[in-house]
Design a protein that fits this description.
412 residues, alpha/beta, Rossmann fold, 2 domains, 15 helices, 44% helix, binds uridine-5'-diphosphate
Length: 412
Amino acid sequence: MTSIQDYAAVTGEDVIDRLRQLARPLKGIKVVHVNSTYVGGGVAEILTKLVPLQKDLGLDVRWEVIRGEERFFQITKSFHNALQGIPAPLGDASFKVYEETGAQNSEGLRSILEDADIVFIHDPQPLPLLRLCPNRKGKWIWRCHIDLSHPYRPLWNYLRNFVMEYDASIFSLADFSQPLPHTQYLMPPSIDPLSEKNMNLTEEKVHGAKIEFGLDPDRPIMLQVSRFDRFKDPLGVVRAYRLVKPSVPALQLVLAGGGATDDPEAEAVLAEVRSEAGTDKDIHVLQLPPDAHVTINALQRGADIVLQKSLKEGFGLTVTEAMWKGKPVIGGDTGGIRLQVVNHHTGFLVKTPEGAALRTRYLLRHPDIALAMGHKAKELVRQNFLLTRNLREYLSIMLARMFGAPERIELE
Ligand code: UDP
């Protein structure tokens, strides 16, 4: 288990000192994070790292996961899609299942939640819990990880009623914030540089992963790591690969993904991807278990081209992960990818498979430029998107909510 002190090697001692100072007044406060899965997807990825470090800083932190039937997760998946702009046929029956599942979960969680000083509710799945904890004593904050810039209005009008009752909300980007009657904080997510997903690996490990999955280590590899989700546009990635293939016949494509336990659509999307890939032996569709962190790390390090061709993206941790490994990412021109990929500097922003193909060919032909862009990408992540920055912001928000909202937080 990593401790907060271990991060000094990456960030310098003063960053860690400041975290300790910020955490001092918060020692012993009861914090609960609630989301809907322990594995798969960005939220689980972040909480896995953040919760132990908040504990290490002296806070009394718990991470709770709500449970639900398959129907609940189908509904919340369409909520997710609708909040990112895809109209969904949702009605009273769906809302009933949603609220009833909230009520069932509140039975087991009520005493913990009502007793907490600060509760962070992640994404829409557990939103109704606040109403179901009438004797809550703490501050409740909604942490929205998704792209809420153009929500399907009928659904947002419904969910907004729950959100309005919170003390504050947190969005990843200014573009995602919505009119709400409370304080809104902007806080992009982050990656853990010391995790198995991001730590340094030996050349042998990277080589070994290529061999393990039947890749030819001497031929170029194009990679996208993502849950099998339409917003990640895996079919667009296959199309981009096909457009490059005639001029780079040696090219291999890897689509690596797995399911999240709160994502019931993954299987259907995976079937579409397999059908699009057809019999092409150079397309490798990998279904990885949720703990395949070292494998993903090795694939990201071993790839010549990393794509994240999302059509909508709350943030895109996979982009941060690849950039940290010195890769210039070719990313969809959307949401949180725009915050990370500075077009022509740390990667390329694209809107179409044709655009992705054009940039892929360019980077394959100019490895020196790819290397220089990759250096800039890594530095951008070091300055902005490491876990320590995220931790500092969480602590600052907790201080502000617990002890009023001072305009300045004085550090020694
Ligand atoms: N991930 C993983 N295994 C997979 C697919 C994704 O471990 O098969 C990880 C990926 O490395 C990243 C996170 O899940 O850390 C996905 O976060 P992102 O913000 O890119 O997308 P989300 O899934 O939250 O939409």
